[in-house]
Fold G-protein coupled receptors family 1 profile domain-containing protein.
Amino acid sequence: MDIASAVDVGLKGAFIAVALDTTLRCLYKGFYEATLISRARITVGCCFLATSITNFLLKLPLGSGCGLNARISIVVFHVAMVLGESLQMYRISIITNNNKWFVSLATILMLLRSGIGIADMILSNGGVSLAPDETFQHCIFNQNQFTGITYVGMDAIIELFITTAITSVLFLHTRELIMLKQRTKNALLYRTIIETNVFRTCFLFLVNLLTLLMVLLNSESVWLGFLWSILGISYLYFVIYDKNMVRFLQNLGKSEAPQDPYTIRQSQLRYRGSTLSLEDWTQIHHGNQQTTSTTPSSPRRIGPVEIPNNYNFV
């Protein structure tokens, strides 16, 4: 095994470790007790774990096992990518208040991506040749040129589309830009969702674009393997980040600091006409808020959009 292949194997081994850690973190509180969005996120982590393991095995001398491992790898890879992008589309559709133009374009893009993924699974014949390379003793990658370039380009277009939708929400709603300067729960939540998605989609768009350019230029396969691993690790990182942000937002929703100026102002507005003192009213208001915030009776608002109470934000 040459040095380049050894580096690629080591990177894929690290990918397996990250994927396994991510999957265990997602499964910590139980798959069946999770929401639909959480279950889909767990499935993405499991798919990337299976992809990383099979890709790692492809670099080992497996003889006739190349074809089977490659078919498993390419199937779970496309499933993970389509499912992950669908989750992003669904999440942004909530932020854009289910805008009909966004939903229509998102549906068309995801149908095209799914069709290209199915075509790639058929035309690439499992992704590798059925016999290992006799020189380096590992499986030879045999990606179909048309479908390989097309689905990488579609991934880049989808990420750019999501980024455009998020930035449109950020810059078109001037009222929310003013609200971002306040330290309220909704302002923090709105800003966190926007900034996280902008960073994620910009980063993944650049990685997909670089991968597409390297495919068009017929670059060395070891660098393409490096980019694939970076792409997969990036997706897994965002899975871990999303999980931690959910816990943070849940803790944020359980208690809101009484010294928050916005909240105090709301207490003062409700206090008018009451026979209680302002201090007693504020104390009662915050006490009730702490006990009822975990099960609110009305939808929450993120900027211009009302979010269902049972919606998993990330």
Remarks:
- The mean pLDDT is 62.
